Amino acid sequence: MSKILRIAGRYAVTGLLTLFGITLLSFLLGHIAPGDPAYAILASDGVDAPSDEQLAMVRRELGLDRSFFEQYILWVGQLLRGNIGVSFMTSRSIEHDLLLRIPVTLQLSLLAMAILVLISLPLGYLLALHKDSLLDRIFLGITSLFSAIPGFLVAIILMLIFAEGLRLLPTSGFSGFSSLILPAVSISLSSTMMITRVFRSDLLSVLGEEYFEMARSKGFSYKFSVAKHAIPNAFASIVSLWGNYFVGILGGSTIAESIFALPGLGQWVLKSINSHDYPAVQAYVLVMGIICLIVFLLADILQMIVQPQLRRLN
């Protein structure tokens, strides 16, 4: 129990320090972004050439006339009270927009991650068992090809084939699970290829280890030896990569949401950036940072489950 408490305490301290860094970074990014929110607000109200007095008045109303650290302390104080802020452009609570859009982005990212896991593991296993076969060579060639194709181009190709051509899936908008299939495939395809390649390579490495040959010499069948010794060891090596790839998928969802017109966080934050809506951008960076922190924590826990020696090391 004391060992578990020590590990939990270390994660708690690390998490709090990381959370502090996330809040500081998100606030800093909002302030170093180019443009003047006061000018953007007046322009949206039809004032094309605002005077210095008008700009100063809007900045004073928004609290932008205060020092950076004073604004930061006030913002953190609001966060601790459960108030994530109010949008400069809509004067609406940012929490309302986040609660509407986070589910779409999370569903898209989780579906993309599910595609990655469900395809990469069995395919990597199949390719490892048929090393240097025609199937293996074809896949390695396809991997190199898709690694060079940008995600947005994959999304456009999928849209042209399955939405415009075959009309099997919706082109844009969110109308349920079917609306997420093409975006999820587009942002997970490259990662799926890479994880498959890594899992194949790790399996081949384990199959050449001495302990695997020893298991075979004891009379165990080849498939049993692979399932008992090779797969668990190869699987443990890619668990740590899942957190990184999920974060990459989460970031890639911004482009996919824009292309497929999904009402998620990505499309919302792009509009906020274009309109210089600092509180909305800060809230986005903060929320995404917290999600990434949770993902890396879960990846560490999963890795300790599949690799007991890490628990002993901790």
The CATH H-level homologous superfamily of the largest domain: MetI-like
Sequence stretches where pLDDT stays below 50 over 5 or more residues? none
> SSE string, helix = H, strand = E?
HHHHHHHHHHHHH
- The overall pLDDT, averaged over residues, is 83
Total number of domains = 2
Number of helical segments with 4 or more residues: 13
Report the C-alpha radius of gyration, rounded. Answer: 24 Å
Largest β-sheet summary: none
Strand content of the residues, in percent? under 5%
Instruction: Give the strand tally.
Output: 0
- What structural category characterises the helix and strand content? mainly alpha
How far the N terminus sits from the C terminus, by CA atoms, comes to 13 Å
CATH architecture classification of the largest domain: Orthogonal Bundle
Which topology of the largest domain does CATH recognise? MetI-like fold
Question: Judging from the principal axes of the Cα atoms, what is the shape?
Answer: flat
CATH class designation of the largest domain: Mainly Alpha
Q: Helix share of residues?
A: over 70%
